[in-house]
Amino acid sequence: MYTCLTLRVRNLITRNIITKSFYRINYSGSLNLTMESSKIKLSERLSSLVRPTHYNLFLRPDLKTGHFEGKVKIDITTKEEKNYINLHTKFLDITSVKVFKNDEEIEVVKYNEIKQIEQILINFDKTLDRGVYKIEIDFNGDLTQSFVGFYLSRLNNNRTMVASKFEPTYARQAFPCFDEPDFKATYDITLVKPVSYVALSNMNEISSEPEDNGKTEIVTFATSVPMSTYLACFVVCDFDFKQNEINTNGIGNNFILRSFAQKDQMHKINFAQDIGKRATEFYIKYYEVPFPLPKLDMIAIPDYVSGATEHWGLITYRETSFLVDEATASSINKINVANTVAHELAHMWFGNLVTMKWWDDLWLNEGFASYMQAKALNAIEPSWTTMDQFLTKTMHSVLVTDAKLSSHSIVQTVATPDEITAIFDSISYNKGASVLRMLEGFIGEENFRRGVSDYLKKYKYGNTVTQDLLSCLEPYFRKEYPDLDIFYIMDTWTRQMGYPLLTVEKGDDVNQYVITQKRFLLDPEAISPNDTEFKYRWFVPITYTSSNGPSKNITWFPDAKEKVHLTVEEGGNWVKINNNQVGYYRVNYPLDLWQKLIEQLKAKSAQLSISDRSHLLDDVFALAEARVVPYDIALSLSSYLRVEEDYVPWETAASIFKSLSDRLANSLSDNLNIYVQQLVKPLYEKQSWQKTKLGVIESLLRTRILALATRCQLPDAEAKVRNMFLTWLNSHDTDNIVTIETDLRDLVYYYGMKSATHQEWDKLWNIYLKEEDAQEQTKLRHALAAPRDTSILRKYLTLAWDEKNIRSQDYLNVVGYISNNPSGTALVWEDVRTRWTELVNRFTLNSRYLGNLIPSITDSFNTPLKLKEMEEFFEQYPEAGAGEASRRRALETVRNNIKWTDHNQASVLDWLNNHQQL
Ligand code: BES
Ligand code: ZN
């Protein structure tokens, strides 16, 4: 009888896949699906009254054919009476659906896959009472179609492995499930693997039984703790591992941390393993909450769409984000790996143990992990000055994005998979982290830690919204500021986009200042609609520094107040607002105050910290761009760099000069180059091109300075680079290959290739094809995009499309590299437009990387003609998928660029002309 039913239903599914025309989308985005006797209304969201409690999942991936078979049994509890059940599925071939109540089968009349909302609808001929049911579904799928969901990754020597990546909405591609973060359930997972392979999942293995004459094994894992679908993970591979014990210092039991890598890459896991151990121990102490699982694994996977994902107990990484070869990795490579490891580990508690209710509050996950990664590294590697680097790594770039009308608020309503994917963006990550840093700034470090710890304890294994985090911080906040409302204050930052510009004016008394606020927009002509509850005004914490040092207290600037007064202690004749740029806002001063700040900078005032200097640079150029201060002031402030010797301000300056140089384009940037050469020269002369042993931050400074000197064409630097490069390249023809010091490789390869011939390029291409280290490959791929000769770039673009040369995971980066080279921008723009359909087929419209490609190509466009081309392209392909917001951002950027050229170019060129000799 069972077989009969299965067959019947199977026939139905092949015939009954509902296509778009069967139903209508109403204005709220939900679907009205008319059934014979009743009207069923379905939407992207599942009913909150039908909840899974337990999954029993069996998966049999075939590493040779690239197919998998699965069976899932889901225990559910329904709290509503319905004659249907709907849950998620995508790209799966469903072969059987059965539903039981207390072991008694309930007849399934039919089941339909509703592709548009990625769901399966199971119908019954009677109404089901409230209660407990079990759904059993057999299915199979293809592992080779994408790099999300359950997929096959290709290794050397025709070997393969399988891995999974589900966040945010791809668990449904591996097994039918209730694929929303709020549906936490426990899991019993069983994987079948070849006997010589290992199978890994979130939990520890509890049994392994041979089958198929001992060729394969059935591995079962312990029942998981309650978790969201997006955190489930399955890997089958032939890797090896190293392990360490995590010392929990009595907060829970000690447990084992393992790092997995391919057998020939085992020497590359020590760095991540060491950071992993120390960061985990830091988090246990910080959160005061035991690690919730009995084991923790980390693994690098050769085909990987993003950087890393925090699957609970089994963190997966892109190789470049995990593997460090001490012989080839640069300090920057190591810092990036450390940041990624620290980020994912922060999620083990924040995100995994306590999860956002819905993706609207994604920032709770990503903003928090992005902030915690900095705190953890600051604690375990204090010499890296990670908190100063927060400005250049995290905050400055998002202050640009968020100064446009195309930005969005941190808490953002989303419904579809495209909308969900799209908010994994710099607002959720970077603004989220910056706003948390500001909150910690005014509440105090220990108060912040306690609030977070209370939150994790209170909501463990549960789901939350932003208010829940704030409610745990509130008692500590109230202690400091009994008259203020933390919910209201934070709402002004998280529930509307943008941020304020504070304008400082002199008050009536010598030491008094008057401060006003206004939304900061890079386009001075942009009209900010008053469409938020807070009218684009913010509740701003103000701190300041004067010659007497930093202020002790915070001055609050409520959104509803027109202005605030600030009285600085006697004796100082200058003031700088927003200490260490902890507040998420910018500040403008009267011209004479700017002059005084410039004097302080030039005099190397001990009162201005590294972050303060970086902040002043970043603000003044943003204000000049927005036509709030004249470029004269910004450029003259930058001249202090002749005496600057710290990394973070130079990193800030380098990105300012890069963006100016892009704006001026090739022909006009000569004077800018000469100016920057003069600034960089004093410090350049103190650096060595020889092998040196420096601390991490000194290495970053050195690489920054040498790279900037080369980029602005300082003759000595250019000559040294070309020379080192050619010696290295030519040594590949000999038995004695010269190596370039690890910290200089990216720079020497890249700028060494600027004037490359076809022959040199071919040589480098062959070196690339033979290279096995992922980080080294990235440096070479970057350098291959450097030549000024467009015909070379065209060849590269063509070769890159072939997956045998460049893995799909790296292709869009290569396209980005080529388009960033002014000789390649037009070429790429043309290619992407003609190839768009193919690109969509390969990466899908749900790829935020494909979406981000558009702004990255068009960022430097500054003519109405280019703008028109963009508009035409978007009209031709109106469906943007997850790239919708990127398109809007790109258009706004180009419109701003056009205005910038009209209004500012002349004055910048003028100033540079007059300052060729400092
Ligand atoms: N949760 C994300 C992984 C992720 C990214 C899922 C995008 C879905 C879409 C993970 O914690 C993460 O943020 N990874 C970053 C790297 C991290 C160091 C910022 C990534 O993959 O880019
Ligand atoms: Zn994250």
From TrEMBL:
Annotated site location: Transition state stabilizer: 429
Keywords associated with the record: Aminopeptidase, Calcium, Cell membrane, Disulfide bond, Glycoprotein, GPI-anchor, Hydrolase, Lipoprotein, Membrane, Metal-binding, Metalloprotease, Protease, Signal-anchor, Transmembrane, Transmembrane helix, Zinc
Regions crossing the membrane: none
UniProt xrefs under SUPFAM superfamilies: Leukotriene A4 hydrolase N-terminal domain, Metalloproteases ('zincins'), catalytic domain
GO biological process: peptide catabolic process; proteolysis
Quaternary state and interactors: Homodimer; disulfide-linked.
Protein name stated in the entry: Aminopeptidase
Species, as recorded: Diatraea saccharalis
Taxonomic path: Eukaryota, Metazoa, Ecdysozoa, Arthropoda, Hexapoda
